[in-house]
Amino acid sequence: MHDDVIEHFLGEGLIEKVIRPLKHGKEASVHLCRANPRLTGERLAALKVYHPLDQRDFRDESIYRDGEWIKERRIRVALEKKTRFGREVQGAIWVGREWETLRLLSEGGVAVPRPIESTSEAILMTYIGDEASAAPRLQEHRPGDDEEAEDLADQIVGAVERMLYRNVIHGDLSAYNLLVWDGRITVIDLPQAVDPRKNRHARALLERDLVRVGEHLDRIGAHRPWRRLAADLWTAWEFADLVPEELRGLV
Predict the structure, then answer these.
(1) Which of 50, 75, 140, 159 is the most buried (most CB within 10 A)?
(2) Does 132 reside within a domain?
(3) CA 1 → CA 49, 63, 65, 186, distances in Å?
């Protein structure tokens, strides 16, 4: 199946070749590609190809779907009964959600990969790293000193705040889906992102995101009161008083 997906992007002229696989995760595989700069604006790109839904290992899916409404009854029934058609639809929904979330956040200046093109099974996006090595995950990165650790923590909190300002909560944030390259953080893996205006679990997911990544940051020397920080961000969002630093004075 991956070969067919890769052939599509080759056929469209968006990529010229697959250089090597970068990651094989529970949800998808990511490949480093030589991109066509004329069509993509990039020399290198990352192609994220989702596994078929029955090969994915994703639990508590209903938490992330809370508040979603599918108009067509046939699709709703198929999703509820988890028929083959329903699982195909659900797979496309996951990819579509990540694509739309990346578009929204990228256009809003949040540190995420810029999405280039998508199908129902894959997303082509900007690559973080160079041809020799991909950006390490925060889990693998060792800050040179306490000042760097504090700066990384500030960037992460700022990214979470900017995402929330745009009505997005990651929903699965950890040191495994934050990349570090040239001292800058990039947020990745967003198919389960939720809209706090619709999802009843949004506040709990926001707290879980910050506490989980905060546990790692505490270990590398960047301490914050993570639960209180999550509560403060939620209160500011709830009362429409959440303004990211770069927008202060403009709104």
Answers:
(1) 50
(2) no
(3) 9, 29, 26, 29
